Amino acid sequence: MTHRSYPLLASIENPLQLQACEIAQLERLAEQARAFLIESISRTGGHLGAALGVVELTLALFHEFDFLQDRIAWDVGHQAHAYKLFTGRMADFGRYGEWNGLCKFLERRESPYDHMGAGHASTSVSAALGMAIARDVQGERHHVLAVIGDGALTGGLAYEALGMAGALDLNLLVVFNDNGMSIDPNVGAFARTVARIAASDSYNAFRDEVKKVTEHVPFGGGILRGLKHMERSVKDYASPNAAFFESLGFRYVGPVPGHRMAELVSMLRHVKTMRGPVLLHVKTVKGKGLGPEVENTFEAHAVSPRAPAAGAAPSASAPPVVSWTKVYTQGMQEIMARDPKVVALTAAMLSNTGLAPLKERYPDRVFDVGIAEANAYCSAAGMAVGGLKPFVTVYSTFSQRAFDQMVHDIALQKLPVRMMMDRGGFVGSDGPTHHGVFDFSYLRLIPNLVHMAPRDEREMRRMMLTALAYGEGPIALRYPRGDTAKMTWTGDLAPIPVGEGELLLDAPEPRLALVAIGSMVAPARRVAERLAAEGIPCTLIDARFVKPLDAALLCTQIARAKGVVTIEENVVAGGLGEAVLELMAREGLLRPTLVLGIPDRFISFGSQQEQFREAGLSEEQLLDRTREHARALAGKTSRRYRRTA
Fold first, then answer.
1. 228 in catalytic set
2. Rounded CA separation 171/275 (Å)
3. Which terminus has fewer CB within 10 Å in the chain: N or C?
4. How many whole angstroms separate alpha carbon 26 and alpha carbon 20?
5. Nearest to 37 by CA among 89, 81, 103, 97
6. Tens of pLDDT, residues 201-235
7. Contact 608, 523 (CB under 8 A)
8. Is the backbone of residue 254 left (phi > 0), alpha (psi -120 to 50) or beta?
9. Distances (CA, A) of 572 to 275, 479, 600
10. Distance (Å, whole) CA 468 – CA 495
11. Which listed residue (56, 246, 295, 373) is catalytic?
12. Whole-number Å distance between alpha carbons of 590 and 583
């Protein structure tokens, strides 16, 4: 792919150039931008559908606004690929999502045009509201916009911000990108005519003049109310959305066809002169340009990287693997077939979490709450009160949004809600907004809560049975992104007793006790075996549970060793290592301890292997750091000190 294939697109070096473009030029730019994004993202893989739907809207925004002066918050950020394209980052798309490459979302450090970074949904209106308040407090005069999709409008934060913006009556433009996946359909030409009238300079000048006059004449309030009632009635007929948004204090304009450049430019030119909070409803097609069989479907959301050229065939001896998500799906199929009280919930992630086939089989027992994680957990609490057995399946990173529900609505009342933390650990190119590296820490601090992580397929299936059987309070299970070795077993699987760890490697006189959990057990085992071959005997314990710990097993093995190493794919602060240190302190076990985990900084986007290396958690780094710790202990008696990452 070369820029010569897209000459007009490559000629845009500064978005201010777009303000001088005629409509026909903007339309040609839209064609080239859409073709470029399809070709580029198809090579690298990544989010695509939402970005293709807002190409014309992005160009129209640049035609009417200067985003070095004006401010814009894009919801999530994967809508903003065209925005990146026209702000000097065309050459960077070849390294989309790679280490030190182009961020898949917006990133404030990447460009002065990226005013607000976001990888979680429903935040744009709130962020823009804050920018508008900052503008007004400081006496500035620039425009502030938010672009939010209909999917993100399933999140409660968006409505909290809309309500506050309407109450404050400040100047804020919210562009509602409705791609047809939800909300009502466009009702035709009459709706567009009403939109043009509502946004026109003459109508709004008349409206403002009437307002001024009625303030000084008898019965003026009634006249103004009549005008507003007439306007709202016409809008309600044109679009049922109008009444809802106007009840929040917004002037509603639309719907506007989002792929008609002339209408978009004209409407934006008008609405940017309107005072107070304004919502512009734009109808777009998600995945536009991918073909009718893909547009506005789940397949349009993201694409996998294009397959590389055929090379050597994979080794016949390569062990079979299965995705952790597939393991979860299989486990839930058996659990739901066995127990009719089991229900599953997720937050706009039916397919990605593996619940889509279960939704087809059990439509009345699988619930997608939309982008509303707090509602997922709180309603699961209600389901538990009602006697059901809810499994809430949400990415670890998105579960952070429901922390209060975990504390207040679930753990405080000891309700048996099963929290399935998908994508626990590093996630690769989606980067720090999506890494699930905090759940050991933020769940471990909550009373009445159990948290566990499996090392392999069999252990995960057993832990799912543990979650099913546990009825004394909330219980969480965290599992990573990617694949695990495919396993076979005979006989029925049994639940793992809550808090029971497992001694995987023993040594008669161990120099080190290695304590690992979840995804880090396998590399920890290889490290222990390599150290044993070097004459450094180690025991290895799979903690299984970060809370509660198997105190008896850990204390017995730690007491036999000269030092301790803990290994986890979680931030060091508050994780497994600190839990082990707390146990040792309580029991009076004084052993030099090396805590290996993710350091106190955000790890960038890239491959998972690069992220492990950056965190100091690659197998070779684990080996080197553990060996150094063991050698430092040679010939020393136990004393009171602690080493951390």
1. no
2. 6
3. N
4. 10
5. 81
6. 554 555 555 556 556 556 556 665 665 555 555 45
7. no
8. left
9. 49, 18, 7
10. 9
11. 373
12. 11
Q: Measured between alpha carbons, how far is 249 from 251 in angstroms, rounded to an integer? A: 7
For residue range 467-509, list pLDDT tens digits in order: 999 999 999 999 999 999 999 998 899 999 999 999 999 999 9
CA 82 to chain centre: 20
CA atoms within 13 A on the CB side of 319: 8
Query: Which entry of 71, 89, 104, 286 is annotated as an active-site residue?
Result: 286
pTM, two decimal places: 0.83
Catalytic residue status for 286: yes
| Residue 19 identity (one-letter amino acid) | Q
State the fold for domain 321-485.
Rossmann fold (3.40.50)
Q: Which residue has the tokens 């004209």?
A: 266
pLDDT of residue 214: 58
The rounded percent of the chain whose pLDDT value lies above 90 is 70
How do 389-395 and 418-422 pair as beta strands?
A: parallel
Catalytic residue chosen out of the listed positions 71, 84, 401, 461: 401
pLDDT digits (tens, 9 = 90+) for 153-174: 888 899 999 999 999 999 999 9
User: Sorting pLDDT into bands at 50, 70 and 90, what band is 641?
Assistant: very low
> What CATH class does 3-293 carry?
alpha beta
CA distances from 164 to 47, 249, 404, 551, 587 (A): 31, 9, 21, 50, 52
Instruction: Give the span between the Cα atoms of 515 and 525, in whole angstroms.
Output: 10
Instruction: Read off the tokens for 403.
Output: 């922390």
Residues ≥6 apart with Cβ < 8 Å to 265: 23, 26, 60, 63, 64
- CB neighbour class for 637 (10 Å; exposed up to 12, middle 13-18, buried from 19): exposed
- Domain boundaries 502-644, CATH class: alpha beta
> DSSP code of 425?
B
Q: What percent of the chain has pLDDT over 70?
A: 84
What pairing do the DSSP bridges indicate for beta strands 277-283 and 172-178?
parallel
Q: Where are the beta strands (DSSP E) in 424-498?
A: 450-452, 475-478, 483-485
Element (H, E) at 570: strand 563-571
* Residues 373 and 347 sit within 8 Å (Cβ to Cβ): yes
What does each C-alpha distance from 433 to 104, 360, 384, 394, 429 come to in angstroms? 10, 31, 30, 15, 10
The number of beta carbons lying within 10 Å of the beta carbon of residue 620 is 11
Query: What confidence category does residue 275 fall into, taking pLDDT thresholds of 50, 70 and 90?
Result: very high
Domains of the chain, by residue range, sit at 3-293, 321-485, 502-644
CA angle, 542 then 546 then 550, to 5°: 60
- Please state, in angstroms and rounded to a whole number, the distance separating the CA atoms of residues 209 and 282: 28
Q: How far apart are CA 138 and CA 210, in angstroms?
A: 31
Q: Which two tokens stand for residue 443?
A: 């769940």
Q: Degrees (nearest 5) of the Cα angle 490, 491, 497?
A: 115
| Catalytic annotation present for 401 | yes
**Tokens (6 digits) for 32:** 């080239």
**Residues linked to residue 342 through DSSP beta bridges, in sequence order:** 389
Q: Would you call 157 helix, strand, or coil by DSSP?
A: helix
In the chain, the amino acid numbered 511 is R
- For range 22-50, the mean pLDDT: 90
Q: Note whether 3-293 and 321-485 share their fold.
A: yes
Q: Given pLDDT bands bounded at 50, 70 and 90, which one contains residue 182?
A: very low
Question: Of 52, 39, 112, which Cα lies nearest the Cα of 78?
Answer: 52
CA-to-CA dists, residue 544 to 267, 410, 518, 599, angstroms: 58, 23, 7, 22
Token pair recorded at residue 325: 């998500």
Concatenated DSSP letters for 90-132?
Answer: GGGGGGBTSTTSB-SS--TTT-TT-----SSSS-HHHHHHHHH
